[in-house]
Automatic annotation (TrEMBL):
GO terms for molecular function: heme binding; iron ion binding; monooxygenase activity; oxidoreductase activity, acting on paired donors, with incorporation or reduction of molecular oxygen. Heme binds at C368. PANTHER family: CYTOCHROME P450, P450, PUTATIVE (EUROFUNG)-RELATED-RELATED. Keywords: Heme, Iron, Metal-binding, Monooxygenase, Oxidoreductase. Pfam families: p450. It comes from the Eukaryota. Pathway: Secondary metabolite biosynthesis. This is Cytochrome P450. CDD domains: CYP64-like (cd11065).
Length: 439
């Protein structure tokens, strides 16, 4: 789809093959980003997600891949399993109004240990406060490149009460907090390193390789990107999973039967069980597809004129990989609005439809560098919750069953607007296993 908005050409790719053809096979022309004025003013210009294509982008991507690549992910699995089991225990022990914060704590807890070697043990942890700030701003400010500031940069010089300039007020309120996300983790780990108390982490490994006089700007940008992206996407996707289980309890029960048949009731699921739990894998894939948490994707920018299938794509065009559009492609996914995990199983058990993780994590040189970490985090937490918890619809004070609507928020990380539910232990045995695992 081609359109122009205020003279700016935009291409919406809602077919997976088109995204592969342009963003992967012609990645040399489509790996750039436009300038995101609003996010730059907020302080996110050094983040890998928003960096324009060039030497700094290549350096940041190499930094990320050196610590988050496939060769490193096994190192994080014990910690991810512990955090997943901690969330299951917290769900069982906490009131429903706390579920959203508990999911955020899970996501933050994993990425904080990877980035800074810090385990969250208190609700007052400074990393949780930073996480709240990220969710408050980045998940509620609209898709990148679509704010009035991006179309009319001159608005940055107007007061926030001026029509169309409300984002200026957001910048004024949150810019200093964004800077703290860049400064605090590196400053803290550096102090711990000097005291001989630093735990293994991405920041520590980078500091140990730095030479005297090296600039910390690249380290701060890489660490802040890992923290923000890892927290937002994991929390948002986990919220979608929770909504799916509330609205479709039949799939919860099917997955629990599969887990019981493979794992039994004498232990908790482990990563080694993954290949033997195909339906659980399908539930995660369908969670990605059913409500993508980055529905329009982050726009790429055409660096030169190009011709695709007879259509001119002008230099400077914004190219959006519409993840939501691809999820609804009826030529690929039958009955696409329905939550149907078995669609991914090979025929005849399923429909043999393609997994969605090759779409949801992006394309080409802009593919998410943390995709393997994110996949493992989500798989182990989904499996741990299904193995030990029962997710049910909530009941209001009058005894009426609450059925949440399937409505997603706007923002860089879209998430369900309502996940009210009740979570209880599946059995006394499953509760005991969780308590024993946490210690």
């Amino acid at each position: 789809m081609y359109l122009e908005v205020l003279g700016r050409p935009m291409i919406i790719l809602d077919k997976h093959q088109a995204a592969v053809d342009l963003l992967e096979k012609r990645s040399a022309n489509y790996s750039d980003r436009p300038k995101f004025i609003f996010y730059e003013l907020l302080g996110w210009k050094p983040a890998l997600t928003f960096l324009q294509y060039g030497k700094q982008f290549a350096k940041h991507r190499q930094i990320h891949q050196s610590y988050l690549g496939r060769h490193k992910v096994d190192d994080f699995k014990p910690m991810q399993a512990l955090e997943a089991r901690t969330l299951a225990r917290n769900f069982i022990e906490s009131a429903p109004e706390n579920y959203e914060k508990l999911m955020s704590r899970f996501a933050t807890g994993i990425i904080t240990q990877i980035v800074a070697g810090h385990r969250i043990t208190s609700p007052d942890d400074p990393y949780l406060r930073m996480s709240d700030m990220i969710l408050e701003t980045l998940s509620k400010t609209g898709p990148p490149g679509n704010s009035p500031l991006d179309f009319f940069p001159v608005l940055q010089h107007f007061p926030s009460w001026f029509p169309g300039a409300k984002h200026v007020g957001v910048v004024e309120a949150w810019k200093s907090s964004t800077q703290e996300i860049y400064d605090y983790p590196v400053r803290t780990v550096r102090q711990q390193k000097e005291a001989g108390e630093a735990a293994p982490s991405f920041i520590l490994s980078y500091l140990e390789k730095m030479e005297e006089g090296d600039d910390e700007a690249d380290l701060k940008g890489a660490a802040a990107t890992m923290f923000a992206a890892g927290e937002m996407t994991t929390w948002s996707t986990l919220s979608v999973f929770l909504l799916a289980m509330i609205l479709h309890p039949e799939w919860q029960m099917k997955a629990q039967r599969e887990i019981d048949s493979v794992v039994g009731d004498q232990r908790l699921p482990e990563f080694d069980d993954r290949n033997n739990l195909p339906l659980v894998e399908c539930i995660m894939q369908e969670t990605f597809r059913w409500n993508p948490v980055n529905p329009l994707g982050v726009p790429h920018r055409a660096m030169e004129d190009d011709i695709y299938r007879g259509m001119l794509i002008p230099k400077g065009s914004l190219v959006f990989p519409s993840i939501k559009g691809m999820s609804l492609d009826e030529t690929v996914y039958s009955d696409p609005t329905t939550f149907y995990p078995e669609r991914f199983l090979p025929r005849p058990a399923g429909k043999g439809e393609p997994h969605f993780d090759n779409i949801v994590f992006g394309f080409g040189r802009r593919i998410c560098t943390g995709e393997y970490v994110a996949s493992n985090s989500l798989w182990i937490v989904i499996t741990s919750i299904l193995a030990t918890c029962t997710i049910s619809k909530a009941v209001d004070e009058k005894g009426n069953i609450i059925v949440p609507e399937n409505i997603m928020s706007d923002g860089l990380a879209s998430h369900p607007t309502d996940t009210r539910c009740a979570i209880s232990p599946r059995s006394a045995r499953s509760k005991a296993l969780i308590m024993e695992a946490i210690g």
